[in-house]
Amino acid sequence: MLRKTIVTLVCVGCCVAASAQTGLESLKEKYEANKRDIEVVKEYVEALEKAKKGKEAERVTKEYMSRCPVLQVEDKDTYLLLNKYVFADPYSNVFEYGIYAMKKMKWDREDIPAGEDKATRLERLFRSLGSGVSGDNEIDKRYEVLMMLSRNLNKEIDKQCEPYLQDKQYVLPLYDSLKLERLTYLVNKGQLLGQDAMRLKLAVNKALHAGNYARVVRDLEVAANLNMTDLRDNYIVAILTVLSESTLDKELINNILSFVLRLRDREETAGGSTNYYNLLGRLYALVGDKDNADKYKKMGDAIEAERMERYKDLFEATGSN
After folding, report:
1. Computed from CA positions of residues 48, 53, 58, 59, in that sequence, does the dihedral angle turn out positive or negative?
2. Rounded to 5 degrees, what angle do the CA atoms 130, 159, 222 make?
3. What is the C-alpha separation between 40 and 82, in angstroms, rounded?
4. Which residues form the signal peptide (predicted)?
5. Residue 64: alpha-carbon gap to chain centroid
6. pLDDT at 11 over 70
7. The whole model's pTM is what?
8. What is the pLDDT of residue 190?
9. Please, which residues have CB within 8 angstroms of residue 161's CB and are 6 or more apart in sequence?
C-alpha cells in the first residue's frame, strides 16, 4: 500500500513538473514574439522565478532594459520588474533614474483580489518574497524597491570606504575620487534608508584622504552622540585604528583616547561585544602610558583569541572558500 502511494505521488509530481515546463515553454514562445511588451516580459520573468530560474530571469530583464530608453523606468510595471535585477549597479544611469522615479511615482494600495481566501493569500505572499516583480500591495512594492536601492548603494559605499583586515591590520580601500563623487551625488539625490550613515562614511573617507584627521574624529563623535543606528561600532574602531597609525599631534591623540574610553564605557553598560581594547592599548602607547598600553593590549588579544576559538570552524570554512 505504501509503495503504491509513493508511486502515485511520484507520478503526480512528474505530471505537475511536466505541466509547469510546458507552461514555461509556452511563455517563452510568447516572449520571443513580444520582447518589447512589458506585460509579456513580466509574466515570463515571474514564471522563471517561480521555476527557480533566477539567472534566466535576470538575463531576460536586462535584455528588456537594454532595448528601452531610461525614461521607461517611469512606467510602474517596468520599474518593479527592474527592482531585483537592474538596480544593482550604482554607477549605471538606470540606478540614478531609479532613485528619481521612486520619488516621482504615485503608489497606491491595491485591494485584495475578490474571493481570495487565506490560503491563497499566504501562497501569493510567500511567492512574492522571492520575486522582484510582485508584492502584497504597491506600498510594499515601493518599500521593496527602496530597500533594494539603499542596500546596493550602501554596499558599494562600504566597499569604497570601510577599512578591511589585511595581515591582521586595518587598511583603507584605494581612493577613487570619481567613484566617491558619484556615490556622494546619489546619496544626496534621494531619500534612502541609512542615508545619514552613508553620508558620514563618504565624508570620513574624504577627510582621511585629505589628512583632515580632526574632522574625522569630530564627525565620528557627532555620529556616536546621535546614536546613529546604521553605523556599527566596529566601523568606528576600524577608522580610529587606521587613524592611530598616522602622524597625530598629542592633543588629537588625547581627544581620540577620551572618545574611545566613552565608547568603551557605553558598550560595557549596554553589554555589547565590540573590542575597543587593542585600540586603547595603541592610544595609551602613543601618549607614553606603557602600563595601560600593555594592560589593554592583553585584554584585546584575549578577547580576539577567545573569539577565534569560539568561531574557529566558521573562520576556517570561510577562509578556505
Report:
1. negative
2. 105
3. 14
4. 1-20
5. 25
6. no
7. 0.73
8. 78
9. 173, 180, 201, 202, 204, 205
User: Amino acid identity, residue 267?
Assistant: E
- pLDDT at residue 18, rounded to an integer: 44
Q: Where are the domains of the chain?
A: 34-108+120-144, 172-233, 247-321
Which residues face 169 on adjacent strands? 166
- What pLDDT score does 113 carry? 57
Element (H or E) spanning 137, and its range? Answer: none
296, three cell numbers: 589593554
Query: Rounded to an integer, what distance in angstroms lies between the CA atom of residue 263 and that of residue 284?
Result: 15
- For residue 274, the surrounding DSSP H or E stretch is none
CA-CA distance, 243 to 310, in Å (whole number)? Answer: 29
pLDDT tens figures, 37-75? 778 888 888 888 888 888 888 888 888 877 777 777 777
Quickly count helices (H) and strands (E) in the chain.
15, 2
